[in-house]
Amino acid sequence: MGAFDRPQDFEDFIGQENVVDTLEVKIASAQKRGRPLDHLLLQGRPGLGKTTLAYIVTRQMGVQIKVTSGPALTKAGDLAAILTSLEEGDVLFIDEIHRLPKAVEEALYPAIEDLAFDVIVGKGPGARLLRLSLNPFTLMGATTRISLISKPLRSRFTSILRLSAYDLDEVAEILDLYAGRLSLELDSNAKKELATACRGVPRNALQLLRHLRDLSVVSQRKGAIDGALVKRALEGLGIDSYGLDPVDRLVLTALAKKGRALGLRTLSLLVGEEESALAEVNEPYLVQMGFLELTPKGRVVTSEGCAAVGLPPPDSPPSLL
Ligand SMILES: Nc1ncnc2c1ncn2[C@@H]1O[C@H](COP(=O)(O)OP(=O)(O)OP(=O)(O)O)[C@@H](O)[C@H]1O
Ligand SMILES: [Mg+2]
Questions:
Q1: What are the C-alpha distances in Å from 232 to residues 20, 104, 164, 207, 247?
Q2: Which residue of 13, 68, 127, 291 has the fewest C-beta atoms within 10 A of its own C-beta?
């Protein structure tokens, strides 16, 4: 087991108390009833721990996990092999389930409801429908874009669990955990600077720590990492004291300069970043920071958001100077 394997148990998994509590109840209930775990959908921004939780749950249940993803399943037939390989109680984990093609999604419904999978054997007039029966299994989906999941699919999950951004204390705990594993020592200023830059996302904590490890190895640095080194490292990565990255700043600047609400597509063209990245990574953080509002008319920058990029609020009168 490598030093960077994900937390293996709930005890090592920091934060998300509500989600963890729910999962523990579900697991205990399933085990008492001797049934597979209910179908679960894990929702949340990239890097918050969806995949990690899926593995912890599977381990706790003592079953196997088969992992695939929405874009990997291009046609209904792709499901056949994976579904028929599931043993009783196993978990089928579909990552990015919002990207499941329609035909595959529809083939999944009888699998969930009737433990059946229909395949067409042969061609032309001689073709016939063969119904394969499946072992009872648990469908676990993960998504960064719940709004893109169809109602029928959503309704087939017994629980939808939402992971939210980690608060600064939890991020500090995560930084401690992984700094220890990387044999990095952080002084309190370093930890503070880093905690903001993580934007409440554990994966960012890991990436930033690895970057600091590399810097300190290359510069043959001895002793604890201090705030000044972290600041320099963050500057090098284009991350400012709010934790904003260059794309975040482009978004705020574009909105402040246009002075009106913009749709995701327009924004994507203006800043030269994929719509999905903007919606999954940048916007949630900007909203969390109170720099951006999602309104029915589109994205709107707040006056705090303008201030963060050193611009006047869009509706302020022109300066007299
Ligand atoms: N609560 C946590 N405590 C400790 N480490 C965590 C926690 N959540 C996530 N991590 C670590 O952060 C990294 C990212 O987590 P994970 O891969 O589970 O995110 P994800 O939600 O599946 O992201 P994506 O949407 O990109 O697939 C992993 O290395 C994991 O070990
Ligand atoms: Mg994942």
A1: 36, 48, 29, 16, 19
A2: 127
